[in-house]
Specification:
126 residues, eight-stranded mixed sheet, alpha+beta, 8 strands, globular, 2,3-Dihydroxybiphenyl 1,2-Dioxygenase, domain 1
Length: 126
C-alpha cells in the first residue's frame, strides 16, 4: 500500500492567492499555486511544519453555500487503492463528479458521503 495524504480542501471563492499568502505568513512554509488559463488559482497547496492546506479559487459557476466550501482531500498515487476508497466513500452518499482525468494528468473526483461530509479524491499520475 502506498502513502496517502489527508488534508482540508478549501474553496476560497476567488481568494485562494490572498488566503495562501496569509497562511504562509501566519504559519510559515511555502505555498505552491497553479493557475488555469483563465488566471484563476486552479490548485493551491501550503505545507508548513507538518500542516497542509489545499484549495483553489473554485469555479465561478458553482459557488458553494456557507459550510459547503470545505472538504476532506484524499490524495496519493495508488490508483487502485484510491479508486476503491472513492467508490466506498460514495456509497449511500451523493456523487458530485466522478474520477476524471485533469489537464495536469491527475484524476480527481468529488462526492458527499452519507454523513454529509464533502470529499475530493485526487490520484496523482505516477
Amino acid at each position: 500500500m502506498s502513502k496517502i495524504q489527508l488534508s482540508p480542501y478549501v474553496n476560497f471563492q476567488g481568494r485562494a492567492r490572498e488566503a495562501m499568502e496569509f497562511y504562509e505568513k501566519a504559519l510559515g512554509g511555502s505555498a505552491d499555486l497553479q493557475t488555469g488559463p483563465d488566471g484563476r488559482v486552479a490548485y493551491a497547496r501550503l505545507e508548513a511544519d507538518g500542516a497542509l492546506i489545499v484549495g483553489s479559487d473554485g469555479h465561478p459557476k458553482f459557488a458553494p453555500t456557507v459550510g459547503d466550501n470545505m472538504a476532506i482531500a484524499l490524495n496519493g498515487a495508488d490508483k487502485e487503492q484510491l479508486s476503491r476508497a472513492f467508490t466506498a466513500l460514495a456509497e449511500g452518499g451523493q456523487l458530485k463528479a466522478p474520477l476524471t482525468k485533469q489537464p495536469s494528468g491527475a484524476e480527481v473526483g468529488y462526492l458527499t458521503d452519507k454523513f454529509g461530509i464533502n470529499w475530493i479524491v485526487s490520484i496523482d499520475n505516477a
